Each structure stands twice: as structure tokens, then as C-alpha cells.
Amino acid sequence: MSRPQDAKRSFFPFGNPFRMISAKGTKNSPQLLLVLHAFEATLEERLKKLIPKSKDEILNLSWMTLAMQTLCESHNDIKTLITELELPVSDWDEKWIDVYFDISVKLLDICNAFSSELSRLSRGHLLLQCVLHNLGSSSSEQYVRACSSLDGWKQHIGSGNPRIDKCGSILDDLLGSLDLPKVKKSAKGKVLMQAMYGVKVQTVFVCSVFAAAFSGSTKNMSVLDVADIYSWASTFKGLQNLVNEQIRVRLSGGRFTVLNELEEVNSSLKELSPIIQGVVDTIETEPLVKIVRELGRATEKLSQGLDLLSKEVDSFFHVVLTGRNALLSNLRSGGTGIDSILEGNRDAQKVN
Fold first, then answer.
1. Which residues of the chain have pLDDT under 50?
2. In the chain, at which end, N or C, are there fewer CB atoms within 10 A of the end residue's CB?
3. Could you report how far apart the first and last alpha carbons of the chain are, in Å?
């Protein structure tokens, strides 16, 4: 990992159920190994989907939407694996429950940060529509309004987002959760921990890429060192190297943003700005018509991409939130008396 962490904590809501499963020294049965291999093969296929055919396909909104889709699928697969392995939760230790609530809130927080940035970008889209609307007329007054909307877009898009700035500390906590807990007495526990590790790596990678893309900074970009013992390690390393390198190249090259759709909009605006600022009481010129047409296409592409990605981020938020609710339901039905734990996490459950 790129940043060493002091806190080594569990990442998913499954506590420490392994002490009650089987005797010390239990080895994985052939059936359990088949379950694990199938899980990891599916994980590797999802990682392969994120390897683009060309570098231009990296870090567009379609790629980010696919990345979030695969993340939702992997988290749902963990839930299914829990059911298949029949791991009970009734005897979980209070400290593990408390850790889960803490970490799951961080996942919800980072989802909220991403959603807030997508909403901010969507609000900027309204300013672009104003630019296009005002350029539909050849009057100098409309050009002045277009210039005003253009200035508003530049200010809005360059204002930054404090919630994205806070993603770094959240990612630090997620990085600190990657270490596998030692499981000595449970074959099922070992299978679950290895499966969970793969999903944890996928989660930190996707979240760090999103944070870097939205912030326009490499400081939130993580480099995860995955051991070669995992069947999906080579695929993951290739994906991570490709994506991280593109982020570095784009940011070091002076690009306005690493996101392709935003860069396309900005390129059109760069061409448009000097033209409309120099036009006074004149009809539309051919260069202006062409650039306005290109800006319209780029603006529509940006809007559609933001809408689709927002839906997938909301879906991931729902996956995490339903996991919390399912754990609460299981604990209450088991009569474990978790009121004192819940009281300490009451504020954390109120996620904006």
C-alpha cells in the first residue's frame, strides 16, 4: 500500500463468527475451494471488464459507471456467499459490531461525497445550457449573456468541493482495513476472508480512482500491493497500473480535468470564448455555428453520463445501507441486546 496505516480494522459487517464454526486446524474442503475459486473467477472477470481497449476509454463517465456497477455486484456476491456458507451472527462480539458500523458509515460518507460532486457538475450543466440558448440568437445582447453564463460555468466548475477534499481521510481508513484477519479455527471463515479481501481491494481501488478524478489530484490515488498468491492479482495489477498512469499523465499534462466528457466541453468552450467576445451586432459565422454544435453534443453527452453514474453511486449506497439494516435485523431477532452499541452509533446512522 502507498500509505501505511496504524489501525487494522475489519471492513465488512461479518464480525468474528469464526470461533464458533469448527475445530482448530480445519482445512478447506474441496467443496469450499470450489466456492472460493468460483467467486474469485467472477471477481477477475469484473476486473477484466474495466480494462479498456484503448487509453481514451479510461476515465470517461461510461467507464466510471461500469466500475460502480461491478462494485455493486461484488458486494452483493459477498452477501450471497455469507448465505451459502451459513455463517451465523448471533454470537458476534460487540467490538466487531461497533467496528462494522464505523466502517460502513465511511462507505456511506464516500458515496455521499461522490453524489454531491455529481450534483455539482449537473448544476454546472445548467449554465452550459444557458450558453447554448443565448447563442441561438445573433444579437449582441444575447452574446453578452452567453459570455456571462460562460464565466459562471468557469467559476462554478473551478470552485471545488469540500466533501471531495475529505475523501482522503476516508480512503486512509479503508486502506487500513485491507489486512486479512487471522482465522485459525474455521475453514468457512478462511474462505470468506479471502473472498472479502478481493472485494475490499476492488472497493478501495474504485473509490480512490473516483476521488482522484473528481478532485483533479493524485494525492487521493492509492497503489495497492496485492500478493501473487491470488488468482486475480495479475489482472488487478495490470488494471491499476493502466488507470493510475493515465491519471498521472493527464494531470501532469495540464489538462483541465481527467474526465473525458468534461475535457471535451472545456475544449469547445476554449474555442468559443474568443469568438463570442469579439462578436458585435453580426450574424452567426460558420466557425461559431460549428463550435456551438460541438458544444451542444459535448454538453448532452456530459449530462447523460452524469445521470447514469449518479444512479450507480446511489445503487452502491443502497447496497451498503441494506447491509447495515440486515445486520441490525439479524442481531435484534437473535436477542443479543445491542441497544448500548446502537446508542453509540446513533449519530453515525444518520447519513446525509
1. 1-26, 91-93, 279-281, 283, 335-352
2. C
3. 30
Q: pTM of the predicted model, to two decimals? A: 0.82
Q: What is the pLDDT of residue 87?
A: 64
- Rounded distance, CA 199 to CA 197, Å? 5
Rounded to whole angstroms, the Cα distance separating 297 from 280 reads: 26
Q: How distant is the alpha carbon of residue 22 from its chain centre?
A: 37
pLDDT, tens digit, for every residue of 136-187? 766 667 778 888 888 888 888 888 889 998 898 899 888 887 775 565 567 7
Q: How far apart, in whole angstroms, are the C-alpha atoms of residue 271 and residue 291?
A: 7
Q: Which amino acid is at 209?
A: V
Q: What is the pLDDT of residue 350?
A: 46
Euclidean distance between CA atoms 20 and 8, whole angstroms: 23
- Helix 233-252 to helix 187-215 angle (10° resolution) is 10
What pLDDT shows up at residue 65?
97
| Four-residue CA torsion sign, 82, 99, 110, 169 | negative
Contact 231, 243 (CB under 8 A): no
* Residue type, position 284, single letter: E
> Which three three-digit cell numbers place residue 165?
477534499
